[in-house]
## 1
Amino acid sequence: MKAPTMMKALRKLAAGDRELVLADVPAPHARPGWVVLDVGYAGICGTDLHIVHDQFPSWPPVTLGHEFTGTIRELGDGVEGWAAGDRVVCEPHSLACATCHLCRRGLAHLCAQKRSPGWGIDGGFAEQVSVPAHLLHAVPEDVDDLAAGLAEPLAIVVTAFERMPVQPGSTVLVLGPGPIGILTALTATAAGAGRVVLVGRPSSAARLELAAKLGIEVWNSTRCDVAEAAYECTRGRGVDQVVETSGTAGAVAQGLGSLRRQGRMCVLGVSGEPQIPVPWALAMNRAVDVAFSLSSSWSSWDAALALLARGAADPRPLATVFALSDWEQAFAATRSREVVKALLRPTPPPPDPRNPQR
Ligand SMILES: [Zn+2]
Ligand SMILES: [Zn+2]
């Protein structure tokens, strides 16, 4: 038997560990129905920080990384419709059971059995990753690898708008200027909103500045009373829709305070707390609709790729790319919010002397 090819993978080795390890592991082989990808880019997200600190369930030893794009390297037996060299992204809903009431409703992304790459099975912070072929989506020719590397957060946003569609010409307030907030503002605009405002705190000044450069109207939440400003700019009516991406009690109150009667709020922000105070009487008085959105639906992926292909939402300005070997800097920059979105590049191209930026 020949020795397995080894590759680098960024792993959590055991529950209780607070450190990741860049380890040498055997490269995967494609089992029946699965494919092996050469990973192009893999995004670091807040969930990865939670996984490191055991604040999100994981099955170590496991390679992290649930947001990635890659090129098919090897096909397992029985895989049809795909070929080596195809550029793809992958829904992270591996090991969903296909038989529970949620899977049968077409909601495999909410299946209790699912074990995603990056926490349930080995993920994309590695040179190669093995995934089920039925979760792949083809990357359109007009979408480059970097944009495709950001398809997952965009699919998360599209899923939120499946829960709470944008009405043509409506006023949409987005709370929280992280990558999801900025992508939400871009998507709301692409979906036909009349006015979109992104709200953030001065601690996120760099992110607000970037959003403004992308043409998004931004409000600094310490410079104004957000609810008051929302009422003022809508001639006392209140905004039609709010998307909450920050997970903080203050933002939830601002959102409900900004809505018109029978306005709608969609919640994407994950709170670190099991309970947060909500201005319940105000929500009742406004007769608001609130929808919570979790994970990404099957239909959101091709929709996200279509938005990328049209250039309707271009996430590339959000990205800072690090070599896999520089993962510590990438995680530190994510934690400190120095960057909007860090992506790891497991197989960097040869260095270009004219451009030291990776
Ligand atoms: Zn994520
Ligand atoms: Zn299921």
Note: The chain has two domains: 6-154+297-345, 165-292.
## 2
Amino acid sequence: MKFLFKLMEAFGTSGNEESVRAMISKEIKPYVDDLSVDKYGNLIAHKKGALPKVMLAAHMDEVGLMIKSIDDRGRIAFSNVGGIEPLVLVGHAVHINKKGNKVHGVITTEEVSNDFSVEKMPKIADLFVDTGLSKTALTKLGVKPGEYLMLDHKVNHHLGNKNLIAGKALDDRIGCYILTELIKKIKSSKNEIYFVFTVQEEIGLYGAKTSAYKVEPDWAIAVDVTNSDDRAPQPTIELGKGPCLTIKDADMISNKCLNNHLENIAKKIKIPIQYDVSDFGATDAANISISKEGVSSTVVSVPVRNLHSTISIAHKNDIENSITLLRELLKNPPKLCLT
Ligand SMILES: [Zn+2]
């Protein structure tokens, strides 16, 4: 899973996906018939085949932070890009990339920096970055509002369990990794397949909207991650128990025919699957499914713990099983899921 670790190390907050896109382009170029970047920034890889047209989407972007303002003392206020819990940010090391030179800082609050005890949960507006530099020094370095703050991490570690992967941006570098593996493994495809690496999912599923309009798929699958609840007394989604099929989330009801087809394939090749019926969250599939006249769509996702925090945790088997399931699906595509 070396390429997954590389993808996790790349920084690609929504609107800043260039380095992730370059990394994926380089990796998949030898294996696809066409590779292009659309006007919005999505990377579209095409493998030729017969109709119907299939679209598999994974988003390149991750949640993160952007500089909002710098006060007279050099304290940097920031805005969140996508859903990120302020609680996990306190004490976090960050850096600002200035042409290869890093300006390092740490996220703190008034209470923490003054030795008061924190009495209520901080909001983003209560937090700031301390770089140890004055406003003048930061301005001289070219640090200004609108720039991204990169959250520093030790990535690619397994906690106490070699079967686990813990690190940043598992949402959705896991999906990007699954798509790149499929691209490499599928030598000849039955259908026209478009592997789309989307931008700006975390702030509104936008890349999926423009790319689905362009690709005009007949059916589609978003490959993403979903929240596990394996610490609950009666868990419904657990790490290591297989990929999840979304039945519904906050924004869509998945296509029943596609889900039945995936279920049958999983049974045939003896891959465990789990069902995701969720009140929260949405994926690229929501926007793909309502593109033009509508597209039969569903979501295959890998369960993770700590979704939208700075370090998430996934199980290797769920990633491997997702690849096997989707590979088998593309070998045996559904015949009647076009409505
Ligand atoms: Zn996601």
Note: The chain has nine helices and 16 strands.
## 3
Amino acid sequence: MDEDTHSPEEPATGPVVCARCGTAAAGGTPPLTWLSSMEDGRLLHFCESCARLHIRAIESRLDSLWW
Ligand SMILES: [Zn+2]
């Protein structure tokens, strides 16, 4: 009976690292410039430079889904 301590959105455990290049974010939370992407039920983070590359892949993927 301890459901109250369970928040719907559980914070990620451990340091936040870029899923692409492995750069660790300081402070344990991704900076605003980082991109968060839910893939296969997991929340992935991409640093600023990787986000630019990754967002193009996301957009092209969305395009194909929307069509
Ligand atoms: Zn990166």
Note: The pocket of zinc ion is lined by residues 18, 20-21, 23, 46-47, 49-50 (CB under 6 Å).
## 4
Amino acid sequence: MGRSYKHATVIGASLGGLCAARVLSDVCERVTVYERDELPDRPANRNAVPQGRHVHLLMARGAQEFESLFPGLLDDMVADGVPILENRPDCIHFGAAGHVLGTAHRLQDEFTAYVPSRPQLEWQIRRRVIAIENVEIICEGVTEPTYDTALGRVTGVLLDSGDAVPADLVVDATGRGTRLPAWLDKWGYPRPREDTVDVGIAYTSHQFHIPEGLLAEKVVVAGASRAQPVGIGMLFYEDGNWNVTTFGIAKVEPPQTVAQILDLADDILPAHVSAALRRGTPLGEMAFHKYPTSRWRRYDDLERFPAGIIPFGDAVVSFNPTFGQGMTMTAIQAANLRAVIESGEPDLAPRLAKATAKTTWPVWLMTAIGDLALHNATGESKWWYKPVGGLFDQFLGAAETDPVLAEWFLRRFSLLDSLYMVPSPRLVGRTIRHNMKLWLAEKRSA
Ligand SMILES: Cc1cc2nc3c(=O)[nH]c(=O)nc-3n(C[C@H](O)[C@H](O)[C@H](O)COP(=O)(O)OP(=O)(O)OC[C@H]3O[C@@H](n4cnc5c(N)ncnc54)[C@H](O)[C@@H]3O)c2cc1C
């Protein structure tokens, strides 16, 4: 493919910025990524990515997308100790909205997922981007993009040092706190509409070392529900330790001490898991994080938008993190960017915004319905969210003991299968029959 751009600058060297740089390196003579944070030369937490201290589940689809951007990534991660997760009941304990899925039977179509920590994944990707010949990562903050009123386009970036760097394309990958809406305002463009759900989530995380042999699982998730507004995610990472994240939804505080984490584990995890955790050793310091609002900035809806800049990653859409989909959706945005560039048509930003809206919509809808109907969140709700949430709850109830339904859900939740595919009438019938049978059995034994 020819080089369509001379120089692109990317603001932010987290997962979004790195993926965008990878795609642009194929069509730009030069790509410069600016990052205001220090970038460690090993897997390590960064101050500007505070979420990295909390569990990050990489969906199976995300692993596939990252691998297609960076071939060899998954093998290298495994060589560095990243656990592989077979979708089998002995590897994973997965509870969502008060239901524990797929534990009764092996799922038919097993798929493989990977469990890198957030710092490990970012570092593996960063070192690959650094190795790309025409990409440079510079640790310096960007004050704002430069805008030429006469041309009606963004022309580069102004660095915190005061230097202006010309570029024919700028990527805003500055995360949830992006200032692009304010810059648009300043340049005389409308701000994007924001779709929001007030999820009121608070995270508390602690590392544990659990003696070998006590747990076969590598992922343990007990999601929150209306009745039980706190949850736990435990991931076994490449350093041989468990990251244990507890969270509260709808402004309910999660545990604040190790003793409270252990008590919560006793309440909501299988007995062998909480017993193993009690035998574990807490390591390091506790980390806290608040995530008040899921936010989708609707750039796809704008009638006017300047040329020369594209928003990317969490700067476009940031999902309730307890669903574990943000990194995967960022990787999917990178696939969209590649497809839109390869089509060779003009108006990159609006076409990318539309493509990203198409891939975002079903995932946003699923999480919004889950949050508003089942997780006590507040925000704009459609009349049909509650009944759909109720059906979903029935479906998850049946999926506890029906592997076909569990598999249907897990493949979509992992974003392997499209969420545009709603359950077929056969699956709905199967759900009803399954729940009826359980209800009758309960009645008979009462
Ligand atoms: C608590 C929490 C838990 C999460 N858990 C999961 C999970 O389990 N699974 C999952 O898939 N996703 C999860 N996510 C989402 C995931 O972290 C993000 O989707 C992912 O980090 C991609 O973000 P990004 O690169 O767009 O932005 P960020 O990671 O926020 O990075 C933005 C970068 O831009 C830099 N920057 C900002 N402004 C400037 C500037 N002016 N100049 C230069 N640099 C700048 C910052 O320093 C930072 O490095 C979670 C998020 C949170 C908050």
Note: The longest strand covers residues 281-298.
